[in-house]
Amino acid sequence: MTPVLAQTPTPIIPQAQLTQFTNARKIVLYQHYAYLADQSQGIAVVDIADPSAPRFLRFAPIPAGEQGGGWIGDLAAGDGYLVASNDVRERLYFYSLADPERPVVVGPGRGSSVYPHSGLIIRNGRLWVSGGDRRLEVYDLTNLNATPRIYLLSQFDANLAFDIAQSPNGAFLSGRRFDGNYAVIALNDANYPDLASPAWESVAFSVNPVSSYTLRCAWRNNHLFAASSSFLNIMAATEPRLLRRVNSVSVGRQLLDVALSEEGYAVVSHVLSSGLSLIDVRDPAGNIPGLPNPAVVRRLIPNPGGGTVLPSLAIRGRTLFAAGSEVAGLQVYDLGPHSSAGHLTMRRPPSPHADAHSHADAHAGQRRPEPRRRGG
């Protein structure tokens, strides 16, 4: 279906942003802190106890012997740990968040059999790493000396998996199938570590047509939302059934990420007009009388800045945190009451922070390097 734009796009000028890091590719939230993966400088730690006045604190240390080469491309935080991936060196860095304000390196960097790292989640004391060669790597965060388990995902071809998101029983994983089509499968961790049971992988959700290297997933209230280059796909998470497909020609071609609010709205970032779109998904199946048609775009907020993109989003309460490349840095938006007639407004900090350390990265806004096959 093609959504109907609810109102004319309203440009806003970024005024609440931190620019010590201008090559951010991923943002994760933990307690009162945000962690941003900056391609050129490492992991930025930001105090967001007051979302209207975020404070940059420091860059987390890089494990000994890992300095130089590559960039931090992905992050996961949970269960007292922060994990970062170096997408060029094929390394994982582990941190303790016993003091979330000061991440502490735990052990040396670890080599990974997954390349590139396209998704990280922390669930029940374990780190799940998805990526190339249809591999899934699982680490025990309570015993990092243990050898990680490596699994092959039978429903994907030998090229790559795209992203991973938590589900009620495990995780959803998106990727490309042997027939060249794209899909999302469900993984059931009740069978971990014995994968002999077919319940480990469920029937795939088709998300075709997709033609992008990037496909991001989010889950909420028994529905799965997969943002691809061409569509926002809304699926029933309890059965292999596509409910809605939002044509991104109206939303913004090449969707980069999707985040879900507790009130039933999806925010997607996209390259076309370098902006954000707020989509009403309170009724994803179209069965609730009186609610708008699912996936109607409520607001479109172009983000001026000359090529600026926001590749990673996170929502807490009514606050949207967006990590961006080039001039974007960290942007904090007040979602406010979604039903109001106004558009999203950017939260304003009391004063700008110095950005002496910020600079543009040659890789900002580009796709990750194409994965290479192993062993032919």
Name its key features:
single chain, mainly beta, disordered N terminus, Methylamine Dehydrogenase, Chain H, 376 residues, five-stranded antiparallel sheet
Characterization of this structure:
The structure is a single chain. The chain has 376 residues and is mostly beta strands. 1% of the residues lie in helices and 42% in strands. The protein has a single domain, classed as Methylamine Dehydrogenase, Chain H, CATH 2.130.10. It is globular and about 55 Å long. The protein has one helix and 30 strands. The relative contact order is 0.17. Strands 1, 27, 28, 29 and 30 form a five-stranded antiparallel beta sheet that branches. Strands 6, 7, 8, 9 and 10 form a five-stranded antiparallel beta sheet that branches. A four-stranded antiparallel beta sheet has the order 2-3-4-5, with no helix packed on it.
